[in-house]
Structures are given as C-alpha cells and as structure tokens.
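USER: Fancy drafting a protein?

ASSISTANT:
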Amino acid sequence: MKHIFFGIIFVFFQVISIQAQEEIMSISKEEVLEKVKKNNRSIKISEQELNQVKAMFYQTNSLFLPNIGISHTGISTTNPLMAFGSKLNQGILTQNDFNPALLNNPSSIQNFTTKVSIEQPLFNLDGLYQRKAIKSQLKATEFKTQRAKEYIFFEAEKAYYQLQFAYKIIDVIEVIKKATLENKKLITSYYNQGMLQKSDVLEVELKVLEIENQLQFAKSNLQNASHYLLFFMGDKSTKTLHPSTSLELISLNNNIQSVSKNRADIKALTAATNAYKMMHQSEKSNYLPRLNAFGSYEVNSNKLFNSGTSGYLLGFQLQWNVFNGFKRVGKIQKSKAQFKKATLELEEHVSKSKLEYQKAIRNFADIQHKLTLSKKAVSQSKEALRIKKNRFKQGLEKTTDLLQSEALYAQKLLMYYQAILEFNTSQTYLNFLNTAQSF
C-alpha cells in the first residue's frame, strides 16, 4: 500500500512538472521590449563597460585635487648621522651631544615620526588634454551603449515577428490538415463505392502523413522561436510564449531618405575621433613643464604616539623633461596616426551607413511589390482550389490534381505570411537605421 501511495505521488509531481514545462504565456511586443530593457544580459554588459569608462574619468580628478597622506614611522638606530638628526628633530639636543666621542659612537636612540604630507598639482597641460580625451571616450561609450540597446531592441522585435510567423505556419498546416482529412474521408467513401482506385486512397493517406510531419517540424520551430525570445528577455524558463497579437502588417514612419548624423553609432565614432585628437594634443603638450606644490607637517618624539617637537616644510617643483631620446617624438607620431585613422573610420562608417540605408529602402520597395503579388496569388490559388474541389466531387478531376491544388494554396498562403514577416522586419530595420530610440 505504501509503495502504491508513493507511486501516485511520483506520477502526480511528474504531471505537474510536465505542465510547468508546457506552460504557455501570452505576451505583447511592448511587454517583451520592457523585459529586454530590464533583463537582457548584453545590455547589462554594455552598461558595465560604460561604468568602467566612468571610473577612468573619475580618476582624472587627481589633476585638480590634492594628494594627502598620513604616516607614523618608528626607528631605533645607532647610526651617527641619524641619531644626531633624530635628537635634533625631537628638540632634545644638548651641548654634551657635540662631544666627538658621542658623535662618532652614539648610543641607541628611538624616534617616532608622525607626518602629514600634501601634493597639489598646479600646472599639467598634458594631463588636462588626457582628461578631455577620456571625457570624449566616455561620451563615445555612452553612445555606443545606446546603439547596442537599440540593436538588441531591433533583434527582439524581429524575434517577436518570427514567433508570430511560427504560429501562422501552424495555423495554415492545421487548416490544410483538416481539409486533407475531409478529402480522405470523401475519397475513402468513393473508393468503397467503387468510384476510385486503391492508389487514390494511398495517395491521400501519404499526404496526411506528410502534413503530420510538417506539423511536427512547425511545432519544433515554434519552440525554438519562443526560447530565442526568452533568451533576449533574460528569462531562463522553458515556457512557451504566445504573442498577444497575430501576424499582421505594421506601419512605421520611414519617410526619412538619409541617415541622420545624430544616430548613436555615428555620434559615438565622432566622440571617439575627438578623444584621439585630445590624446594627440596631450602628447604634444609633453614638451611643456609641470608645476606642482608640496608640503608636510611632522611631529617627532622618542615615544610611540606621543606629542613632541613639530615642524613644517613647504615648496614647489617645476619639472621639465627636456629630452628623452625620440620616445616623445614617437608617441606624437603614433597619436597623430591614430587620430587620422579614427577620422577616416568615421568617414567610412557614415558612407557605408548611407549605402546600407539606400539598399534597405530598395529592398523594402521590393518586399512591398512581393507582398502585393503574393496576396493576389493567395486569392487565385484559393479560387482554383474551390473549382478543383467542385470538379472532383463531380468526378471531373483526379485525386492528384486536388492534392496538388491544396498544396499550391498552402504554399501561396505561407508565402503571403512570409512576405508580411519580411515587410514588418524591413520596416523595423529601416526604423533602426534612421532613428534613435531613447532609454
């Protein structure tokens, strides 16, 4: 009895598990894009890359802010010079300490120094240009991150249209399967009445098997499309998604005939080019001197963490590296070449983007023409199938002709939905090429 009870429990949880795996969730395109925005891992990676560059820019604040350090040092020494200096710093030097015998062979002395030091940059032109370069790099990364998000959104929309199309394929195959089963019933009836050959029955049965096989592949493709969309959404589950709207023509504003210079990727390359320009200026500014101020405050005592004699030191340093071989010249030439390369890459990218956009416009026009023709083909093949069915019932058409007519209608219907998919995808691609989305 106990084994039966645990067996029932096991079967119950297996059924629950299967139902959980086959869970179907309805979702709209807007909900998909919202989940992509929050959970997509590629977007999160881009945001972390942006955070890295922000951290680099924060480091350049050291050009304006002081460097402050605090230390406490303890020593014990019999070194003549250090022993004399320690007594002098502690303010305990006496006349007896000038005895040559004590100067040359002092006894051990302890010295504890608490020191506060400060360094303040005053003039560092090459550092200022480096800061400007990193700031431009930060802008470039921001625009690059934005473009990455726009691309992920575009791919997610494509995946949503693919999911809609996958359901349409199943719907078409189900309709054809239903019609074929009706034909099979009719042909079997005619065969039983001696009006048709056995080969006609076998032919329609073979057609049913082919449709069953197509339906199985269509369902597998549906799962693939669903899981691909879940991947974009950052969802690790295996549930099946169902679009809240069926595949239908969409209309977007694509009246722009040229690529905007405000597109995020173009602005990113523009900012990157400016960053290389600032780095070139930084390398040239290395010829100029650097001016820094420094200071310190010390407290010396012969006891640990104890008050004693104090003193301060203030000063400035003008540092000028006049010649370091040809290392500086080589860096200037390298930065100049990088700047020119970035400028050429920007020009090439803009030119290539314009070429790509014009190609996309022509492709969209071709798809519009294809959509019109495929719609007419569906209407004609549907009418031809209706005529074939009527003639078949009257004994004027062969079974092969009827099945071929049904296959042709299914093919034209799928081509029509394929054209809708391409139309929607092409419009979304044009929108991706000539507009910038805000996040």
